[in-house]
Amino acid sequence: MLTSAIIVLLIVLLMGGMPLFFAMGTASLVYFYFADINLALLAQRSTASVNSFLILAIPFFYLAGELMNACKLTDRIIGLAKALVGHIHGGLAQVNIFASLIFSGMSGSPTADTTALGSVLIPAMKKEGYPAPFSAAVTVASSMVGPMIPPSVALVIYGTLANVSIGRLLLAGVLPGIVIIATQMVFTYFYARVHDFPRYERAKMPEVGRAVVRGGPAILFPVIIVGGIVFGIFSPTEAAAVAVLYGLVLGLIYRNVGLMGIWRTVRDTALGSARILAIIAMASAFSWIMVREQVPLTIANAISVVSDDPTIALFIILAMLIVVGLLMVASSAEIVLTPILVPVVLQFGIDPVHFGVLMVFTLIIGGATPPVGVLLFIAQDIAKISHGQMVRAMLPFYIPLFGAVIILALIPEISLFLPRLVFGS
To answer: Are 288 and 45 in contact, with CB atoms under 8 Å apart?
Structure first.
């Protein structure tokens, strides 16, 4: 009864508009009080979860992404994407999708992707005759790859909460990111042929070479991070610090990140990281309560009633995550649910690295679905269209998005191949 009461209390507080940190903290405090547990344990559980060298990767990756965005590499990324895929049916739409793959290696954020690339590509697509709703929809859909390619704060958070290797997780997101982009490019290819969208002439090799040189700094960003971890040069936290240094060097080279710009990125990083770490601290205490009350076991038993098959169990959990993603911001849902669901998937023999990639991607799709759908509001504002037009334009793109979820769920090796290749089984 007490467990049910605090879960209901948490939901009521969130629906009432209370920030997640305070809502979880209040629910946890109520449980500790009525369960007659020393309140000092609440403080210990909360602080222990963030008193970690590993968790320093979160603010460092956050700062690195902010610095790379400040370097204004967007035009270089678009130029590179245009040279490589602009000749495919769909032209600028294909460029939009492929540019997201490159940009995700800088920011790791679908919001930054939608804002930075959308502000350039949506007006450009409209100018070339693409419908404004379609231009906005392809921008939102392609931004879903953001948290898959290193650096990925979402995967670092999952690894921290699930006690899973950050290095394995960062590698595990690379091939799924390519699958996500590939499904969208294939879908857009056929969609563009049906609607007779324009495309560019194939770029000649000298043009491709110049585009690669100009866009090289953006490509090198995730390569440095992954390569350093793979070859044992530095840990994930040290990789994040190196990423920050790389962002600062680029800012000095291009002379577009001054002292005030650096100050703003540091300030924004401090505020954003403090918010995330505070939520993680309270989530740690709340998850301890859930484990103590055997909530993961209860969920596992409930799923077992339907089926003992790991694949079916995984799809049931993913369906639940999709529903949660409709109602909660992805980062908040991830922090709350990771400590609860990881013990569940372990009972079914599902690899936690594979599940982490699926969980992050499935929850991120919620950013492209109403009613919460933050990405929809950003894109529709740039495209100057109504919310109804935005939602209708997104409907076809759920086909490649959910298609990617199904492919990744049915073929775990896509996520696990690189981690096993580098770190072994």
So the answer is: yes
Instruction: Report CA-CA distances (Å) from 421 to 63, 156, 356, 418.
Output: 30, 20, 18, 5
Please, what is the Cα angle at 162 between 160 and 166, to 5 degrees? Answer: 50
Asked if 215 and 76 count as a contact pair (C-beta separation under 8 A), the reply is: yes
Which residue has 């911001």 as its token pair?
329
Assign 200 to helix, strand or coil.
coil
Domain that holds residue 27: 1-37
**Do 163 and 274 reside in the same domain of the chain?**
yes
Return the H-helix or E-strand segment holding 65: helix 57-70
- Is residue 389 domain-shared with residue 336, that is, in the same domain? yes
Q: How far is C-alpha 423 from the geometric centre of its chain's CA atoms?
A: 23
The pTM score is 0.83
Return the pLDDT at 107.
67
What pLDDT is recorded for position 356?
95
Question: Is position 202 within any domain?
Answer: yes
Q: What is the spatial distance between Cα 329 and Cα 416, in angstroms, rounded to a whole number?
A: 27
Q: What are phi and psi of 318, to 5 degrees?
A: -65, -40
Residues 222, 150, 420, CA angle at the centre, nearest 5°?
A: 100
pLDDT of residue 269: 83
Shared domain check, 12 and 125: no
Please check whether residue 209 lies inside any domain of the structure: yes
Claim to verify: residue 19 and residue 63 sit in the same structural domain? no
Q: From 192, 211, 190, select the one nearest 91 (Cα to Cα).
A: 192
Whether residue 45 is contained in a domain is answered as no
Dihedral-angle region of residue 201 (phi above 0 means left; psi in -120 to 50 means alpha; beta otherwise): beta
Q: What pLDDT does residue 190 have? A: 95
Task: For residue 380, tell me if it sits in a domain.
Answer: yes
CB 108 within 8 A of CB 144: no
Among residues 42, 38, 37, 15, the alpha carbon closest in space to that of 26 is found at 42
Neighbours of 372 (CB within 10 A): 18
- Complete DSSP assignment for 111-136: HHHHHHHHHHHHHHHHHTT--HHHHH
Mean pLDDT by 10 residues, the chain (425 residues): 86 85 90 90 84 80 77 79 91 92 77 82 90 94 89 86 89 94 95 90 89 82 79 81 84 75 83 83 85 84 88 93 81 85 92 95 86 83 92 94 96 94 81
